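Example S7 (structure tokens).
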């Protein structure tokens, strides 16, 4: 439960059709298996106590009674399990039969949620047996002593028969309204109060129920059953309006060709639409195969992402760590998703019953893996598709700007590094889209104190290979003159020494753009902007910043993708060598002709900073949680001391350098994280980092 995590499980037990005792035994066995793995929310299939495929046996009174007996048995034999458990059974209420989900916790039956949408087409005939629970709202009385005695006697001897007149011995009877001060006839005044509380319960039966965890109030769970998800307006929509952020679905969905993909899409889409977690448990092997087969395709999703999926045609359990705080943060951020009872549409603005349950406060042992490169898809095909999409977004943004101002020329400072290489590739694509001559792209290389032969040669070769106009302006003399003017010793390699070069380069680019009637294309990336690793009014400034929302870890893959798909061997070789060059601003003199100033030695590894940035801005996680996730993601790659060191650096620089982001030039947003002051990040430049730094200091390794 720490940091908002809760472990969920969806299980498909082995069943025998109409053998409630066997089925309950399997459910209980599976509950204890889930318990060993730390699951706190456990979901089983629709009608799992009887099996879904009982057909006309659902009319048999002894089957319905036995289902109740085994429900009580499941509740009592899992009383020591610290979890909320959902099982399915048929339940008679006021002369009608309902297909319900029962919520159990610590031996208590908390409530019954009836199925609303009953399929009665093709192979489904549920309306033959069941009644829709759409408008149901009442209570069911359970005499636990009755059913407890029955299942205990059944285990003592298979030969004992119980002949009980239902009129005088019905453990699940409807509650009658009592006159004021009238005692219900089922209360035995000689019973102790504790026994009454344990064995005699009045339980809600309603589709409008929220199960709320007392120790974690933000965890609010609601249930729907199978077909409820497949209709245009599922009950889970109303559940979400009334606070539910975790939906459980007890299902019995049979298999036909292609249905698994559709089912997966439904679960994924509903969890995304409602910004919720979704646990889908469905029937599997053991159900009757008289006409259909059940595959047990269990699914657990969170906000559109499938976290776990079972193998079909094999009964078993899947687990996933759901992040309830992440869902809550996302709902708070998405102002159009206003999930509140008073904002529910007409017809869904109804009252809900709340059932409270308890869980022990403990840290969830995470089995969920967090991608150490959240901006970069791990699957090659998806990564290539993403790279092509981003290049097109960047190029389309620049294309619009060039066309709007009737600009025929572009100027780029080309260093031979990754960022300026990507900016040139994007500019070339934009010019091609406009049908403009690439020769009107002026690539300016401006060698100075820190320039190495490798980067200089790559810059020149890249420009020529792409058909841009190469212009060289050596700035060494101009920078030395500037140092003399301001009285700076060029042997002192401080921030003035470095920034003087950066601003000289920007001045040259701006003036060349003025000469040609062009615009300066910015090369700085998202990671540099987050850390403030840019010279104010130097490389920080341009007339259109094509890389402003592309993180450094993704820049590398974009250049690699271009190399792999350009179908030009010479160009590919140049790009691959650029990829192999250490990231550096090259502002300090090289040592023996080799780059001496490596950015990541100074500010830290970009893969760490991009990870921190993603979870801080995209998901608004606090420092302690980001540290915990980084430990998980970078296990075996960075030790805890290294992660914490650079996390402190990240927060310190992020807050200190906001003034640079407050005046960024225009540039296209390409992903879910951006720092434009006009778009995603409205942050004051003088905000204090004290709260975040204090939390970081509390982390003990």
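Recovered sequence:
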């Amino acid at each position: 439960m720490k940091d908002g995590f809760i472990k969920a499980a969806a299980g498909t037990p082995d069943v025998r059709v109409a053998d409630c005792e066997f089925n309950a035994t399997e459910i209980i066995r599976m509950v204890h298996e889930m318990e060993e793995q730390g699951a706190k929310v456990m979901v089983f299939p629709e009608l799992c106590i009887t099996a879904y495929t009982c057909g006309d046996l659902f009319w048999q009174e002894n089957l319905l009674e036995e289902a109740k007996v085994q429900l009580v048995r499941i509740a009592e034999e899992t009383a020591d399990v610290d979890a909320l458990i959902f099982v399915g059974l048929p339940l008679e209420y006021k002369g009608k039969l309902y297909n319900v989900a029962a919520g159990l916790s610590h031996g208590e039956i908390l409530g019954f949620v009836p199925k609303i949408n009953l399929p009665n087409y093709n192979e489904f005939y549920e309306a033959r047996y069941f009644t829709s629970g759409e408008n149901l709202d009442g209570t069911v009385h359970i005499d636990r002593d009755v059913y407890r005695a029955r299942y205990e006697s059944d285990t003592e001897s298979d030969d004992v028969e119980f002949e009980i007149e239902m009129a005088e011995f019905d453990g699940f009877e409807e509650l009658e309204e009592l006159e004021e001060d009238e005692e219900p006839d089922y209360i035995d005044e000689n019973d102790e109060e504790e026994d009454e509380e344990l064995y005699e319960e009045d339980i809600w039966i309603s589709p409008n129920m929220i199960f709320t965890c007392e120790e974690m109030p933000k965890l609010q769970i609601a249930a729907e059953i199978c077909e409820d998800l497949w209709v245009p307006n599922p009950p889970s929509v109303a559940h979400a309006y009334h606070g539910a952020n975790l939906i459980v679905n007890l299902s019995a969905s049979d298999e036909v060709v292609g249905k698994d993909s559709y089912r997966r899409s439904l679960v994924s889409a509903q969890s995304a639409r409602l910004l919720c977690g979704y646990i889908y448990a469905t029937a599997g092997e053991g159900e009757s195969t008289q006409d259909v087969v059940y595959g047990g395709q269990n699914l657990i999703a969170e906000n559109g992402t499938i976290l776990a999926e079972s193998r079909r045609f094999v009964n078993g359990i899947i687990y996933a760590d759901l992040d309830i705080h992440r869902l809550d943060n996302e709902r708070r951020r998405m102002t159009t998703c206003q999930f509140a009872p008073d904002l529910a549409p007409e017809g869904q603005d109804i009252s809900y019953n709340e059932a409270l349950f308890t869980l022990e406060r403990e840290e969830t042992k995470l089995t969920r893996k967090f991608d150490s490169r959240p901006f970069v898809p791990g699957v090659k095909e998806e990564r290539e598709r993403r790279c092509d999409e981003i290049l097109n977004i960047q190029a389309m943004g620049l294309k619009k700007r060039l066309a709007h101002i009737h600009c025929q020329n572009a100027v780029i400072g080309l260093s031979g590094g990754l960022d300026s290489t990507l900016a040139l590739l994007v500019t070339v694509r934009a010019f091609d889209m406009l049908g403009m001559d690439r020769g009107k792209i002026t690539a300016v290389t401006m060698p100075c104190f820190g320039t190495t032969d490798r980067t200089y040669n790559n810059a020149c070769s890249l420009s020529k290979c792409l058909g841009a106009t190469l212009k060289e302006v050596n700035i060494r003399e101009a920078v030395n003159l500037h140092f003399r003017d301001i009285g700076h010793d060029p042997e002192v390699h401080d921030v003035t020494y470095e920034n003087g070069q950066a601003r000289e380069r920007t001045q040259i680019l701006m003036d060349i753009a003025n000469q040609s009637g062009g615009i300066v294309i910015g090369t700085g990336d998202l990671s540099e902007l987050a850390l403030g690793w840019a010279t104010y009014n130097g490389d920080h400034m341009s007339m259109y910043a094509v890389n402003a929302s592309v993180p450094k870890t993704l820049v590398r893959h974009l250049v690699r993708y271009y190399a792999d798909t350009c179908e030009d061997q010479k160009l590919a070789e140049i790009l691959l060598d650029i990829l192999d060059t250490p990231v550096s601003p090259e502002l300090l003199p090289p040592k023996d002709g080799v780059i001496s100033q490596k950015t990541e030695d100074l500010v830290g590894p970009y893969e760490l900073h991009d990870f921190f940035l993603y979870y801080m801005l995209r998901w608004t996680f606090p420092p302690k949680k980001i540290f915990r996730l980084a430990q998980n993601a970078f296990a075996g790659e960075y030790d805890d001391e290294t992660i914490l060191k650079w996390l402190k650096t990240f927060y310190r620089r992020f807050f200190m350098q906001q003034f640079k982001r407050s005046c960024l030039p225009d540039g296209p947003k390409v992903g879910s994280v951006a720092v434009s002051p006009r778009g995603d990040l409205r942050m004051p430049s003088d905000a204090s980092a004290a709260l975040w730094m204090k939390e970081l200091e509390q982390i003990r390794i």
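Notes on this example. Confidence is low (pLDDT under 50) at residues 157-181, 183-199.
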